[in-house]
Fold each of these.
Amino acid sequence: MSRRPRGAVRGGRALSLAVLLLLAACTTQGPDEPDDVAPAPPPGQRWRPAPEVSWQWQLSGKLDTSVKAAVYDVDGFNTTKEQVSALEEAGRRTICYLSTGAWEEFRPDAGDFPEELLGEGNGWEGERWLDIRRRAELEPLMAKRFDMCREKGFDAVEPDNMDGYRNSTGFPLTAEDQLAYNRLIAKLAHDRGMAVGLKNDLDQIPQLVGEFDFAVNEQCAEYEECERLTPFIAAGKAVFHVEYEGRIEQWCGQSQELRLSSLQKKYELDAWRQFCPPGD
C-alpha cells in the first residue's frame, strides 16, 4: 500500500466523523466530470503525461474501470494483463504501482530478497525498508518487477518508498545513496519503454526532475508544500496529487492555480474519489 513517509503519516490520523459522513455521501466521481481519454504515444516513444491530465488511483478493492479519468494508477501485482488491455482499449493510460524502496512480505517474490537487505519496519504491517545502497543486488529484483509491468502492457511505473534516506530505515542512508538508487529505478523503467514517476521525495526534485516523467505526491496541500512540485509543471510534466483529510474545496483552488492533477481519496485508496477539475 502506498504511503506518505514521515512516520507513516497516512495511517496516523483519523478523519472526523463530520468529514467521514460528508465523504460517504459523495459518489465515486462527480456527475459533471467529462469522459477523458489519453492518446497512445507515437510508436517507439514512451508516454509522457502532461500537466492537468485526469487520473484515478486505486490500490485496494475490486478494480472499478468505469471511472472517466484518462490515467489509471493501479497495483502492478494484483492488476491483470486483461484489465490493463481493457483500459488501454478504452483510451486510458496505465501506471504500474510497485514498492521499490521497501520489502513487502505479501508479494509473490518476497522470498527472493535476502534478509540482509531488509531493515526496519516502515510503519505498515509486513513491510520493511530496503538497503538501497546494495544496488547490484536490488537491480535484478526490481528489473524482474519492471518486466512484469511491461509484459502486462503498462505505460508507466509508480515506484513507492523513494525517500528512505529521510526515514529510520536501520541503514545509514544518505541523500547521495537515494539519488543513485532513484536514478537506477528511472533507468530500469526507461530501458523498458515505460515512463516513471518520482514519488514524494520533494527535497530531490531539483536533481531528479529531468530524469523522471511525472511526479506522484501525497498531502502537499496539508503540509503547505505544493509549490515545490512546480519544476515538473514547468517542464511540461504531470503532477498526480492526492489529499486525504479535510474537504476538497479547501485546497482545490491552489491545485488549479498550480496545474496539478488532484484528487481527494480515502486512506485505503479504494475506488472512491473526488476530483479537482482543471482551472480555467
Amino acid sequence: MRFCRFSYRGKISWGVLENEKVQPLAGPPYYGIVKEGEPLLLADVELIAPVEPSKIICLGLNYADHAREMGAALPEEPVLFMKPPSSIIGPREAIVVPNVSQRVDYEAELAVVMGKKAYKISSEKALEFVFGYTCANDVTARDLQQKDGQWTRSKSFDTFCPMGPWIETEINPHGLNIKLRQNGVIRQQSNTENLIFKVPEIISYISYIMTLLPGDVILTGTPAGVGPVKSGDFLEVEIEGIGTLENTVK
C-alpha cells in the first residue's frame, strides 16, 4: 500500500493512495487505518512530505563506491549522524542553498520509516518494526562538512531533507535500483543490494543506541556520483518500487 500526507483546502491529512485517488485517514496509519470522508482525486490535492518523525538518523559511507570517492576507508560499523525534522520538505518543494555555503551536493537515498517502537531489537526481527519506505535526498553543504570536521551544520539547514512522494509498504528494501537525475541527466545509479550494512542490521544497531518511535526515519546512505547543485536545477530521486521524488533548487 502507498500512504501519503497531503494538503486539501487548507487542511493537512494522511491518506491511502489507490487508482489516482486519495482516501483520507483520521490519523497516522502506524496506529491503525481509520478512513475519514470520501476519496479525493490525486490531481486535486497537494502531496507534502509523507513523514513527521521525532528524529532522522542517517548513515554515512554505506556504499563502498561512495566511500572511495570521498577518500574514506570502509567503515567497520555504521557511521551515524542526524538531521533535524525542520530540514524536511516534500515533493516539488525547493531546496534552498544557504549563503554561507559555496558547495551544496545532492545525495539520493532509500529512507526507512519505522512503524513500531523499537529498542534493542535483533536484526532478525528488525523488519517487523518497519512501516515502509520512501525516497530521500540527503542534501549536504560539502564545504562546511569539510571545514567543520563533523556533519551537523552541513546536513541540517532547512530544506536539506526532501522526502516523498509517499511511503510504500509492500517492498523488500534490498535489490532496489536507485538513481538521481539532475536536469534529466543520470548522476547517481546503483542498487540497494550494494549497501555495506543492510537495512535489518542498521535498524538493530541504532535500536541499541536509542529508542526508535513510530514515524522515525532512517536514511540508509548514498551511492557514488554525488555532486553540486545550482539554482534552477531540477532533481529527481527515483527508487524502484517506490516512485520519484522531484525537487527544484534555488
